[in-house]
Specification:
Elements lengths: L5 E6 L15 H5 L5 E9 L1 E4 L12 E6 L5 E13 L13 E3 L6 E7 H4 L10 E6 L41 E10 L7 E11 L4 E5 L15 E19 L10 E12 L8 E5 L5 E5 L26 H13 L3 E10 L2 E2 L3 E6 L4 E4 L4
Parallel strand pairs: 1-2
Antiparallel strand pairs: 2-6, 2-7, 3-5, 4-5, 5-9, 7-8, 8-11, 9-10, 10-12, 11-12, 12-13, 12-14, 13-16, 14-15, 15-19, 16-17, 16-18
Length: 369
């Protein structure tokens, strides 16, 4: 990793300011740089944005306008606070000196150019693609990783590389962040005023990536070149807990919280190997068009020749074609969501999960309102 990527360590300090410091490389270190990619590491990082109502500087105001209630009256929506900090921030109230690292030199955030033939087998949907990859720290073998949501677990308990706070018992800073946002909603009738809070505790995004490519590629094999952006994305979000609450406009006197403990979210967008990239382009009328291409049907020239029997079984189908679809359903990219415990206040409602969801077709087109 160190021999293949030019690693930049960015030191960011708290509040709404950030400084970047880059260290000089010696000639011997420069000789080891291959130029294959860039690695980013955020060290000692904290971001805290507060409006005046949350104790920020006088005049600070971050508002969302244009929202009306059912009576047509304006609703003022203000971002009271937005923060990213180290674990243990107590829902954004204990931020002083509470910093976090995001990535580390042995497993940084990366920006790379990848060879599609190396991502696939040279004959699938990745073939002959030049791919721009932006990726968070990778996941690792369970023997050398940490539990993705339980920060009390030690080394060798999970596949996440981001380490919990005080991961070795010696007080060292970890790579899992607290993140939260508080929104103030103010109505004509002030009795309806409320602060809505969302907070993620001890979170990481290990294994997330976006891979982009473009050019005149025929994404759906209809004989016409598609010139829009194509991509495959993996959005992972793990947190020891997600907390939703309602409070007074200054964030105090909160009611009972909705807490999702052990939250795991793994969203797969597109599957380039099986000719299902996500495409982003603009329609002739100027609207945004986002699509996950439909799974190719029997008879598509990119698939093995033959047909699938009426009963869908292997014995009545062309063997190679049936094997292709079986491989897709077995090994294709899947979305998983799980929560180890859902609680309202102190009352537990147990666990919940969705496993193995495959998006075989999705289309979104923007419209004027």
């Amino acid at each position: 990793m160190l021999a293949q990527r030019f690693l930049i360590s960015i030191l960011c300090l708290f509040a709404s300011y950030a400084w970047a410091e880059m260290a000089d490389l010696t000639e011997s270190e420069m000789s080891e740089v291959s130029g294959e990619g860039v690695g980013l590491v955020y060290e000692n990082y904290q971001f805290d944005m507060k409006s005046e109502s949350f104790g920020g500087d006088t005049g600070n105001s971050f508002k969302i306008t244009g929202i009306k209630d059912g009576n047509g009256d304006d609703v003022s929506v203000e971002i009271g606070q937005y923060y990213i900090a180290g674990s243990g921030s107590n829902l954004g109230t204990s931020l002083d000196g509470n910093l976090v690292n995001i990535g580390r030199l042995t497993n940084p955030i990366t920006i790379d150019l990848l060879d599609g033939n190396a991502l696939g087998d040279g004959t699938d949907g990745w073939a002959d693609k030049s791919v721009l990859s932006i990726a968070m720290p990778t996941q690792v073998d369970a023997a050398s990783g940490y539990h993705c949501t339980d920060s009390s677990q030690g080394l060798g308990t999970g596949t996440c590389s981001s380490r919990p706070e005080n991961f070795d018992g010696l007080g060292y800073q970890g790579e899992r962040f607290d993140m939260g946002m508080s929104l103030n909603r103010q109505f004509i009738d002030s009795n309806k005023d409320v602060n809505l809070g969302f907070h993620a505790q001890a979170a990481n995004m290990d294994g997330s990536y976006w891979r982009f490519w473009g050019g005149a590629t025929d994404a759906n094999n209809d004989g016409t070149a598609d010139n829009g952006l194509q991509l495959e994305g993996q959005l992972n979000f793990y947190a020891e807990s997600l907390v939703f609450n309602t409070c007074n406009l200054d964030g105090s006197s909160c009611g009972e919280s909705l807490t999702m403990a052990g939250f795991e979210f793994e969203l797969a967008l597109g599957d380039a190997k099986y000719y299902q990239p996500m495409t982003i382009d603009v329609t002739d009328t100027g609207f945004l068009h986002i699509m996950i291409q439909p799974l190719p049907a029997p008879g598509d020239s990119r698939l093995p020749a033959g047909a699938i029997g009426a009963d869908g079984l292997e014995g009545s189908s062309d063997a190679a074609l049936w094997a292709w679809y079986n491989d897709y359903y077995t090994n294709g990219r899947k979305t998983n969501v799980s929560v180890s415990d859902v609680m309202i206040g102190s009352d537990s409602f147990g666990s919940s999960s969705i496993q193995g969801l495959q998006i075989q077709y999705l289309e979104v087109i923007s419209h004027e309102i």
